[in-house]
Amino acid sequence: MTTDVQGSASSDSMLRDPRVRAIFYQILVIVLIVLFVAYVGHNTAINLEKRGIASGFNFLSQPSGFGIGIVLLMDYSSQTSTHLDVLIIGIINTLAVSLSGIFLATIIGFIFGVLRLSKNWVVNKIAAVYIEVIRNIPLLVQLMFWYFAVLSVLPLVGDSIRFGESFFINNRGVNFPAIIPSNGFWVIPVTLLVAIVLSIIIGKWARRRQDLTGQPFPVFLTSLALIIILPVIATLVMGSPFTMSYPEFGRFSITGGWSLEPEFLALLLGLSIYTGAFIAEIVRSGINSVSHGQTEAAHSLGVRPGMTMRLVILPQALRVIVPPLTSQYLNLTKNSSLATAIGYADITAIFAGTSLNQTGQAIEVIFITMLFYLVISLLISMFMNWYNKRIALVER
Amino acid sequence: MAIVKTERHEDLPPPVSQTGVIGWMRENLFSSPLNALLTVVSIYVIYWALSGIISYAFINANFVGETREDCTGSGACWVFIKARFGQIMYGFYPVEERWRVDVGYVLAAIGLFFVLSDVVKNKKWPALYLFVFVPVACFFLFSGGYFGLEVVETSQWGGLFLTLVLASVSIFVSLPLGIVLALGRRSSMPIVRMLCVGFIEFVRGVPLITVLFMASVMLPLFLPEGMNFDKLIRALVGMSLFSAAYMAEVVRGGLQAIPKGQMEAAKSLGLGYWQAMGLIILPQALKISIPSIVNTFIGLFKDTTLVLIIGLLDLLSIVKAGTTDKEWVGMATEGYVFVAAVFWVFCFGMSRYSIWLENKLHTGHKR
Fold first, then answer.
1. What CATH number matches the domain at A83-177+246-391, 2.60.40.420, 2.60.34.10, 1.10.3720.10, 3.40.50.450?
2. In this predicted model, what pLDDT tens digit does every residue of A293-304 receive, in sequence order?
């Protein structure tokens, strides 16, 4: 009888054993997923065959056959260039607008974040209004506003708004003088690089000296002088190895110089103003998170307000600021895909848009596009994680 | 020789320069020369911006009329919004059927009022009404085909109505889905956990547009022949899956904040996993993550504008279509300012509600 009870209890406990159940559930999940994938794959194969859509990545080497508005760093012609070229141009354009957007948004965000903390009531409220208005309006609406309501109604090329001799604003964008490199131009970027490396070395040396002897060294001024003076000397020694190209009014359009297209400007403005508002809030909460006792302690030790901010408050605030800042950078990069709506030639617009429509190979195109964004997200997170680790609190 | 005062001198008021309006201004506006300069510059900027906005939107604006020719002032032409108001609100929903949308709004508003406000303490019945009755009723009301209501195809839905439908359905679907994903991500079963982590990180790593592209271009390829969803459903699937991933991370944050002892205590009382989760852990976790959930809702509401790219006629796209009308050339500013104002009212309202709720829930340990 006892064995009977034990027997039923053991088979019962097999069913009630969480480990057994966990394995059972997981097998169930795997089976369901495999069935689902097989079903979808089967349907897709039938659908693709029926619609006569090719599969594989051969389409990348086929000629694209359409024009692209903005091409940077590359030669592109609709006859000879392939869909692979389209992909590369899309990637370059996305990176261009994302990086400049991140740069600008960070500046805007830090300025307004600090203004939001100002004791000056009026300044404080201006920052608050900026943040509350911009954060609560969809980015797409703002992009449309900048593009269709602001940049499109600027004067025609002939009636450009002029700032000085060679800086024009009109409905085709902004024109400004260009630097055209000539023989020996490479010396200037190289000296700039040397200056930056030297500044870093001096910074490390100065820190070690201060740790050992307590003597400070004007690192910032020295670095600034190095970074400005070395390239200037290089320019003079090489006899100005570049020519300036000024924009001039031709018969129909402006020739020469560099120009920024309204699509790019609208996207850059929209992205950086929108993300700047979020960064401002992050900066404000980061600085607020450092307890007031820190400021009081620094003041009572005789540290002056500017140094208190730089040496006591900011290093602690950055620990709170960096993680959400990372996700804002990621958001900005992903939001740059809204370029589609205003016709800026980013990867989503020309590759996942036009190339997809031309080839019909939705699966491959969307796969590549998503892979690109995933890789970018991963890279930005990795960089910011590295930076975050560097500034993180070192505990014993 | 009575030069020593024997009685106490009456208390003097604090100096005028330290209190009242003047004191406040000295303290807050003119505490240093730099601050004074900032104040003056800021006030000038405010004056310049406000006078520009007011003269554009009100003083020089046109409110009366039917066509573009009625806009004679130099300011905004609100006649454009007025002439297209019906379309902006309801899209191409038949005019004689629009009362159905309004009835749906009223039903939802009643439910929202009782669930969100403090009027009723026991939220069981209002919640049941809002989350079960209202969706079912609205489905039948809006699409029709039953109870003698005429069928209205989803292709005719549009304007603010479509924006609200998109937002509410995605919110309604993404919250439970997000909770399931968050639980899966914290599950002890490695395969379930890996699947959930993979889904969440994948979706969070790509832009919403590509997810919408995928839903609109690839979903038809995945389905068997003859089975096809309309555009609205495809957009809803994309948006719900997308926001579910974000919701999962928010809920996970709440789950992580609950001490382990809660789960252990629940288990030692003999509760199973689902009982412990449903009765002990989730109520606490969801409560502390409500502000972040509302923030995710705000993001989701703003993201509904992206359906413009896959060709649905939401509030933004119907106004955009209006600005390209030959009869109304040059109305881009009015149109987009109006859309921005509508979205701002909704999102700002939600963010204020979230702050109010946060203050209400954070009792006790606040300085």
1. 1.10.3720.10
2. 999 999 999 998
